[in-house]
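Running co-folding for flavin mononucleotide.
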Amino acid sequence: MDRILVVCYSYTGTSRQLAQLLCAQLGWPMGEIVEARQRAGPTGTLRCVADSLLRRRPLIRYDGPDPGEFETVVLVSPIWIYRLAGPMRSFVADRVADLRRVAVVSVMGAQGASNAVAEIGRLLGHAPMAATSFTSREVDDGSCADRLQGFGRALQAIRPDVAQVSADSGSPRAA
Ligand SMILES: Cc1cc2nc3c(=O)[nH]c(=O)nc-3n(C[C@H](O)[C@H](O)[C@H](O)COP(=O)(O)O)c2cc1C
């Protein structure tokens, strides 16, 4: 079984940029969540808001390696209205059986990541092994790079059999 897969959903490109950087830093493969119905313009943004408020699970397609073939899956997605972005909610709910160990990377303007981590934990039935967040500004100006690489290396160093839950912490820990 392979070790670590990064799965990303991105609406305006920032989470994808971060996910691609993480994969380039650590040599990990990446999969992407794509919406069946494209979001565009003000209507698309309104739908993001409604999806978040109503905790909807929009129809998605997943393009990438089978998450069930990996020990750990790193989920990268934006925050919408202080909550998990709808398409990532759909992915976690659809693939819960394949997501044995999950780390979460949230991308946001300023806040809301802890709600997304908690929701992923509820969907999985267990808390993610690690979580961190970055602002879109940190991604845009490249200042995210060192902390992102540190997070990735720490994940890589964890032996799956001793991974300890530490939701919403900056770095994963081994028991
Ligand atoms: C509909 C909508 C709601 C958002 N709500 C929040 C929020 O509650 N908190 C926050 O910090 N950022 C919020 N943002 C900002 C995004 O999380 C941020 O721009 C992120 O980088 C977008 O990632 P993406 O480019 O991968 O889609 C929101 C953006 C959109 C489009």
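Result summary
The chain has one domain: 2-174.
Residues 14-26 form the longest helix (13 residues).
Job closed.
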